[in-house]
Amino acid sequence: MSAPVELRPENLRALVHERIGNATLRGNIMRATRTSLDKRLHAIDDYEDWEAMRDAAHGIKRLVLDNLAHYLETFERNATARGTRVVYARDGAEACAIIVDIIHRAGGRVAVKAKSMTSEEIGLGHALAREGIEPIETDLGEYIVQLAGEMPSHITAPALHKSREEIGRLFAEHLGIAYTSDPETLTAVARRVLREKFLHADVGISGVNAAVADTGAIAIVENEGNARMSTTLPRVHIALMGFEKLVPDMRSLTHIVNILARSATGQRISCYTNIIAGPRKADELDGPEELVVVVMDNGRARFLDDARLREALLCIRCGACMNTCPVYQTVGGHGYGSIYAGPIGSVITPVLQGMERAKAMPYASSLCGACSDICPVKIDLHHMLLWQRHRAVEGKLGHWFERLAMRGFLAAMRSPFLYRFAAKAASMFAPLFHKGDGTTRLPLWSRSRDFRMPAEPSFRDQWKERTHERKG
Ligand code: SF4
Fold first, then answer.
1. Ligand 1 centroid distance, CA of 25 (Å)
2. C-alpha 317 to ligand 1 mean position (Å)
3. How confident is the model at residue 207 (pLDDT cuts 50, 70, 90)?
4. Domains of the chain listed by start with CATH number
5. pLDDT by residue (tens digit) across 347-385?
6. CA–CA dist 267, 273 (Å, integer)
7. Structure pTM?
8. Residue located nearest, by CA, to atom 4 of ligand 1
9. Which residue has a Cα nearest atom 8 of ligand 1?
10. What are 381-431's pLDDT values in tens digits?
11. Ligand 1 within 6 A of 376 CB?
């Protein structure tokens, strides 16, 4: 058996081939995404004018984007006044170093983590492990993929690609229990194991769904209560966020939380909405002694320089664009090789990790536009994907043969003479490659798609004949 392809964006083609033949995986992904889409439809039914909700969410996020420095300063000032320490990190390495330093100074050995895509983005778990700090994922989906040694395959449902039978086998192997595929039993086992970890953890690490500028509070939405445990039981809470997570005020937060829950999990509201405004006060019973919010750039500022990609920073990480994407539904998150998969992943990864590494990602789309239609903050995803393709072409990153073919195509489309010549040549030579079913076997092209035999007589000849008849 050949070794599995490494999950890297530059391996996208090989990863897709590897996954496309796995019927079980495709079944798991299709079932999960369809269920999410059905639940979302039901949840947005409450609103007669869902479009107005989307417009308002777009407006809130756009306001922050256009006044970023103001809202960042306001957040820092108000958070600091409440006893929160706000620190800035230029990139993932710096964010990891800051977090490791905080944990070392707190004498910590075990860190419980609530789900955070930002921490996955910078490989925080590995960075902690290298420093002798045990990172424990406490979201059930994240815990499953951590046990499996995998990366999450979806922004909101990290283990979406796994069936309950696979999870049952995983738990039996790693947790020493008898095999069962009963979800309730498996959840109870995870809860028992994780509860012990919560009680002994020195530090809790979380992401941030929104940071409220005018109060200096952070909001974390979840369904399992693990984020609340991670952020209240340990002595130190570290929250990691990209600077795009800011919202102006509590009213805006209400709107974002509302639209996020409906789009992500098809709920009217998440089971827990944690609003954390500083560390524990003298008269409070629970909460951490120290709260540090790490605000990270890690390539986000590059979006600000490109007017066509800027609005990718509006993303609230609901995952709806993945659920509705026919490519994601077929290959799942691991097929992209990036922690951010699906349409939004294909837009942001080439910026965050560089176009050279992720040049194939913008092509992992049918450009059907379903992603733009579903996005609750109205990000024009499919046009951004087209723009990313343009950037890849401009950067001359495609295969030389493809570039040569495209140049030939362009020349033919610009010159009626060349076009006629090429059409004639295609009619003459196509029979040499005819497969007998109306399609041709063209080198490279036919590996993954059909190429129809040229029509005989051609449209051009038919047109000429008809206009000739009419004149006659
Ligand atoms: S791009 Fe839109 S639909 Fe996709 S995850 Fe972000 S907010 Fe959700």
1. 23
2. 5
3. very high
4. 47-296 (3.40.50.10420), 314-394 (no CATH), 401-471 (no CATH)
5. 999 999 999 999 999 999 999 999 999 999 999 999 999
6. 12
7. 0.90
8. 321
9. 318
10. 999 999 999 999 999 887 788 788 888 888 989 998 998 888 888 888 888
11. yes
